[in-house]
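Model the whole thing, not chain by chain.
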Amino acid sequence: MKRQLLLFLFLAISGILNSQSSQTLKIRSYREQKESQWMQEYIQFLSIPNIAADTAGLKKNADFIMQMMRKRNVQNVQLLFPSTKTAAPSIYGEVIVPGATRTLIFYAHYDGQPVDTLQWAKGLKPFTPKLLNGSLEKNAAIIPFPANGKYDPQWRIYARGASDDKAGVMAILSAYESVIQTGFSLNYNIKFFFEGEEEAGSTHLNEIFQNYTSLLKSDLWIICDGPVHQSGKKAVIFGARGDAHVDITVYGPSRPLHSGHYGNWAPNPALMLAKLLASMKDDNGRVAIRGFNDDVTPLTTLEKKAVSEIPSVDEQMKEELKFVKEEIPGMGLSDAIMIPSLNINGMQSGGVGAKASNVIPTMASAVLDLRLVPGNDYKRQQQRVVDHIRAQGYYVTDTEPIEAEKKIFAKIAKVTLSGGYNAQRTSMSLPIAQKVIDAVKSTTNDQVVLIPNMGGSLPLYLFEKYLKATTITVPVANHDNNQHAENENIRLLNLWNGIETMAALMLMPPGPL
Amino acid sequence: MKRQLLLFLFLAISGILNSQSSQTLKIRSYREQKESQWMQEYIQFLSIPNIAADTAGLKKNADFIMQMMRKRNVQNVQLLFPSTKTAAPSIYGEVIVPGATRTLIFYAHYDGQPVDTLQWAKGLKPFTPKLLNGSLEKNAAIIPFPANGKYDPQWRIYARGASDDKAGVMAILSAYESVIQTGFSLNYNIKFFFEGEEEAGSTHLNEIFQNYTSLLKSDLWIICDGPVHQSGKKAVIFGARGDAHVDITVYGPSRPLHSGHYGNWAPNPALMLAKLLASMKDDNGRVAIRGFNDDVTPLTTLEKKAVSEIPSVDEQMKEELKFVKEEIPGMGLSDAIMIPSLNINGMQSGGVGAKASNVIPTMASAVLDLRLVPGNDYKRQQQRVVDHIRAQGYYVTDTEPIEAEKKIFAKIAKVTLSGGYNAQRTSMSLPIAQKVIDAVKSTTNDQVVLIPNMGGSLPLYLFEKYLKATTITVPVANHDNNQHAENENIRLLNLWNGIETMAALMLMPPGPL
């Protein structure tokens, strides 16, 4: 008895003891009755093409979602348009709760990444959803949809958008239905916002925010997008890294030269670029550009603790990705995404393989991707790269060098700065943050992984800038979902768990935020 | 008078005083009568397509050349076939001189580089020869062929093969005609050998040499191919560098990874390759691979003197190629081609420009071109590059790495060694070498540039290996001839001078070789 108590205390202190609330069990029970019906609805939803190029398809998706919302008695359902009427609209809906003074708004997006149908596995097509008895990578087979409506939670649906992010739409709306039909009462007004241009870069989101500022007023945006932690545990993510690009081109002779007649006399731009890129990181993989890490806002005690508790997936991922050593020796993935990064996306000079010829190429180019963390300013970070290139003896220009420049400077780099927005991180010490964490914890017996910011980038700054809003991301999809690629899929258990997570968030207790 | 004598002595000592012999003046006078007729013949010759893919065209060229030879009373004219009868044959002919104990054989090739007709300037086509009143780069215009048969020597003919190397065939056969018709008597038997596969890599030349060893017996091969020195001066070239390739691929994660989620944790192969390539040369452009220069046979006193006398074209070429600093600071082009070189032909990882995406690429590749000088063994030189890669911590394999290898080694390089033959250099101190130099000098008032080896590579080792032959290259074309590219051309003066050069070589005095 005493030992059990000690174990309990140990688990409680180490913070990994959660327990599924009776509320969650009721939501689950409702879902079990509805599975078959929801699956039919979801299959219909996934059958409607949702790629950026197909405006008609996107509109059909919007129609379908509005029907889903109305069926669930969501009020004031409407399309929100940017000034450009040809852009895919966002969809809005709300549930005003008498007496509620606070509002939660749930975000997901219904558009998907472009598809290359030929790349999909045999029997699979992006917009003909199929059921598989597991993961394709583990040799699962396509099976018929069950006549008895009984689904094994390890089964998966394969289709574009199955995870990213129609799963978000489905989890949010099914959660709302469950909450209402199970008889719980809400403490918050609930709003819904489903974007139609996320995969196209959210280019009109700022306009929609400006056009509907008061409609979109809320105390918290819950972003339901992306995968849970690679360990399979649920995750709450408080921010995202920013992103910016630097394109570099360096120059050799003005025409491709015979490498025998002129090699090692004429400057070789491929070697110049190799030396320049090599100078940007030391032999331990650390960025060697002056000041690159100077502006980083240190993690708070709470954030440090959260990072230290992120389960390591390093060995699992190395196994999956077939390499044995991380770029910065000894630094795990959880820590690596908390610092600014510099990564080469691409590099090219002359030809390789069958395209190689005996030349000194005329130029060499590279594309660098900079990720930013709180404290970094993307323009300042890009400027540091430019300064570094100058410090290596380069004359830097942002246009194609002209002959007059080539007659003066031995080393010329054309540098183009593009993209760019800063990181965003919501404080984990806000009362609302703790409420979100508690809500997600109430749905699982397992650890909930708290991530100060994801490694990837999202334009969360738009929410801050145009709506002064607080955002917290709570994903639902499995990490091995192939989002953005062929064979995208959702494991049903992730969808079911996601519904429970979203329901718990809708039912958060009132109190200070 | 005394001053003139001093000037004469000074010029004689400094070796740049040549004088056109009366013999040359007679040859010139004959050429002046024949210009119009020869031009008609040359235009016909250039109108016959001569690219590797067009076997019928190559055969028509061979037919035409055989007619040219028979018209000039060359004897025993025949096609020399390799074992593979579909390959373009070489053409042989001979002039046996009563009493002559020594034989000179003149080499040129009649096949040309592939053509991309769309790349040719307006009004020009590869196999429709046109006359221009100068160089296209200097805005010359297309002009009609002159009705009066008078050609300005600065005019140029534009057509594929005009320089490389139908000019060689034309110069050799017109020189022979001039020699005979002007009444000179020959001291050597003269043989002719015109290859049809040079631009296709001379893949059957070894077979032809083996099949016709006794027919091709000679004391000297005179290779009439390539351009004269960039200064415009005539050149005698005693060898060529060897060539070999090293292809390198290094590996990152097994699939392209999101650079936000995994950047700076997963190893980036583009950075790995950049660091590897950067390690191969120091900051002064010198190859930093251990032993790379160890085997070089030092230049002889004669060769050193020749190199020191090569006119510098560095400033002219930098101006033309639009760069201001050579790769090895302070080392001119003439010296740079006397040492082994390492040059990056191409380098590639992920995509750049419109093809860039936010990924960590899975691999990065480079193609290295090694040029070799006498003393180098191409396999040993390739091995030094492999050893260098190993010394940078790489596991080197020559096949695509398998999963088991990826689980052991952090840095894997697939290295493919290809191509490869050694340099060749004929001693400048051979009596025959001096005879060749003297003969060329007798045709010009200007310096003759003596080059121990050219920077580029030719399979001259085939002549040594299969025929035990001595080779010396005496080019005729202008250096700005666009050979291998669009708008190939020959300046008429170079063709006329070339005829005088070839005639002088045919008329070399007898004596020890």
